[in-house]
Amino acid sequence: xxxxxxxxxxxxxxxxxxxxxxxxxxxxxxxxxxxxxxxxxxxxxxxxxxxxxxxxxxxxxxxxxxxxxxxxxxxxxxxxxxxxxxxxxxxxxxxxxxxxxxxxxxxxxxxxxxxxxxxxxxxxxxxxxxxxxxxxxxxxxxxxxxxxxxxxxxxxxxxxxxxxxxxxxxxxxxxxxxxxxxxxxxxxxxxxxxxxxxxxxxxxxxxxxxxxxxxxxxxxxxxxxxxxxxxxxxxxxxxxxxxxxxxxxxxxxxxxxxxxxxxxxxxxxxxxxxxxxxxxxxxxxxxxxxxxxxxxxxxxxxxxxxxxxxxxxxxxxxxxxxxxxxxxxxxxxxxxxxxxxxxxxxxxxxxxxxxxxxxxxxxxxxxxxxxxxxxxxxxxxxxxxxxxxxxxxxxxxxxxxxxxxxxxxxxxxxxxxxxxxxxxxxxxxxxxxxxxxxxxxxxxxxxxxxxxxxxxxxxxxxxxxxxxxxxxxxxxxxxxxxxxxxx
Length: 487
Description:
This protein is mainly beta. Helices cover about 10% and strands about 55% of the residues. It is built from five helices and 21 strands. The strands form two sheets. A 14-stranded antiparallel beta barrel has the order 1-2-3-7-8-9-10-14-15-17-18-19-20-21. A two-stranded antiparallel sheet has the order 5-6. Strand 2 and strand 3 (about 120-130) form a beta hairpin. Helix 1 crosses helix 5 (about 375-385). The longest helix is centred in the last third of the chain and has 10 residues, at about 375-385.
C-alpha cells in the first residue's frame, strides 16, 4: 500500500493497494523547491529577479543576470512534526533530517566586442532538492465498529485459498485472521465477532527528488534575458509502515493482537526541459516567464509485506511475502508547468518578487511499455481526483550596506477536486532570513516554516461503514545556510 505525501504531509489510502495509482502520480509530480538560503528566505519568488543559483530550477533565464561567476553550497536541517487525530484520540510524531538543499556553479563570460548587443553569456550547473519525503506519522485510536480484518475478508471473498493475494489477504488467511465461511472454500469470514480494539499505524518515509540542472542564459542589451535548461531528476522513496490492532481481554475472541507490516521502495530517473525569459522594460521592473515540459520518469517499485498474529492461548503465527517481493517497472509523465513572475528593484536597496505557478495534476499519466499494461483505470482515476492548481510565492529583500534582511510567503493550492475529501488541503509557508555580502563572498541564513493538513481513511470497506477519517496536520521547519564565493 502507498500513502499520499501532500507538500511533505503523509496521508493514507486503502490498505493493501500496492500497485501504481493516482497516489503515486501526485506524490512524484509535486515540487517544493529548496535552494539557497536567499532563495528560500524570499519564498522562492525569484523568477523575474534572477541572479541566484536556485533560479535555474524555476526560470533558467535568471542566470543571464549574472555579472560574474559564482560558486555556492547550501546545507540544511529539516524538522517535521505531525499530529494525527483518529476516533477522537491524538497522536504525535516527529523527525529530523540533515541534507543538501542546493549546490551549484555559474560561469559568466562577457562579450569581447565593445558593440555586441549580447552583453554576457552564463552557463550553470546545479543540484536542487525539489521534494522531500522524510516524515514520521503516528495514528492511534479505538474503533468500536470495524477492523482491518474486515478488509481482508472483502478482498478474499470469491477466491480460493491458492488464488489469494499473498501480499495482503493471503497473509491474513495463513495467520488465522480470516477463515472459511461455513466450509465454503471461496468465501470467508472474520472469526472475531466483537470490536473495540485499539488501532495504530506508524509510518516512516525517507527519500527525495533531486534535480540536476544544466542551464545556459544570455543577456541582450541589458533588456532581454533568455535561458534554457536540461534537468535530470533522481527520485528515491522508501516507506516502512506497521499497522497494529490490539485488544484487551476477549474483545476479539482469542486474538490478542496482530500487525501488518509493509515496506516499499521506489527509485528511478526522469528528464525535463525548461525555457525562460525575463524582460526589463525599465530599470526598476522585471517581468519573467518560464515553461517546464513534463518530467518523463522511468521508475521501479519493490514491495514486500508481513503479518504477525498473537493469540491469548500463547500461539503466534507469522506469514511473509518473503523472497517473492513485488517488483515492477513503470513510467510516469508529470504535468506541464507554467510560471509567470514580476520583480521590482527599488533604489538598488530593496527587491520585491511575486510569482504565479500553474499546473494541472489531472494531466499526469502512468504508463508501462514493457508489459503492455494500459493503466487505463488508474489514469481515469487521476482525471477524476485531481485538478489544476495556482500557487503563489512572494518575497522581499532590503539591503543596508553589506547586510540583507529577507522575508517570504507561499500559498500552495489543493490539487484535489471539490468532490474529494481533501479538497481544502492547501499548504502555507512562511520564511525569513538575513545575509552578509562582500565583493567576493556572501553568507546567508534562512528558516522556512510550512503548515498543512489532510484527511484520509486507514482502510475502506465495501459497505463503507464503521470507518472514520484520520486527520493529520504537519508543521515543518527548515534551517538553511549558504556560503558563496564570487569571482
